[in-house]
Each structure stands twice: as C-alpha cells, then as structure tokens.
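anyone seen this seq b4? input:
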Amino acid sequence: MALPTVEILRWPAQAGRRGDLVAADRPCLWVLETGDLPPAIGPLEDWARDGDSERDVHARIQRLAALAPDVHTLFPREACVDEEGLLHFRGHLIPIPPTEARLLDRLAQTPETIVTRDELSRLLWDGPPASRSSLTSRIHTLRKRLRPAGLTIHAIRGHGFLLTAGAPAAAPTISSPRRTSWSSSSQPS
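predicted toks r here
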C-alpha cells in the first residue's frame, strides 16, 4: 500500500493552509528559511530548513507518512446519517432512506466488526422479517448508495455484515449510443 502524501509547504508564507491540513489529518513538512523560527508543531507536522540535507528531509517525510492515519480506516460513527437523511462522508453527500439509515448507523457504530443478521433484523422489524431476503434486499439497496463514497458492506456468511471503507468508486463513463444496422432508419434510395 502506498504511503499517504506529505504536504511540503513554506513557513510562514503558506501558514494559512495549516488549519485545513490539521482538520483533514494530512501530514505536513514545513520548510523554513535560514534564521526563521520554527512553529510549534502538531503530531502530523515537522519542519526542516532550506539548506538541510536531502537525506534528512527524506527521513522526515517518511516519518510523517508513516504517522498519518490510513485513509481506508473507518472510525466509529464516521459514516452516520444526519437528521435530514444525508450521509456526510469524506466529502460525499448521499441521501439515505430512513430504513437503510438505521442499518448504516448500526454498522457504523462498530465499523470493520461483524453485526449479526439477527441484530439488524430486530433493528428494522418488531418480529422476524417476512422473509430472509427482506434484510438482504435492504442491504443490497444500501450497498449501491454507498459505493460512490467508497463504503462497502460485506456479507460474512453464517455470521452477519460488516462495514469497511476503501477508495471511492470511479464515476461511470457515459458513452453515446451507437447506431447499428437494425436501429438505423432505412437508407435513402
């Protein structure tokens, strides 16, 4: 797996970007001119001087990249639906119907952990569902909605389901329809 990108910015000229980087858990190496005082740094920040050796700068970048959280790590409740029925997840806004929102909220409480089919069924229905496929159908609908954000619900046969995060799905390409001989109008005479 590739290490996360480390931002390399000049201090104090580009200090205005600091808040966004910290909020996004993005590692940053601040480059200082000779004589400039270094800033107080956070856990995902480091600094180097313009004249530092390439080896030293490279070591600092590698250390920062290793400290950054894995972009595929899903934290508890990170993928929950708000009161308006919208999932806000890593820049994606996805409408989620109420029934599927209850499923997602439960799976997101303990991501990457199996939640039993029975627990999810009890969450949606007072008694047992009309059929075993009722829950499967709801999960299938939810999976399609979550795919663009990189969220996946895995079925663990005989146990239940678990929610994970990965890379967002690529947008589908739209191609223009092709005319075939059977769909084109008759040739002029």
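The chain has five helices and eight strands. The two ends are 62 Å apart (CA to CA). kinda curious what u guys think
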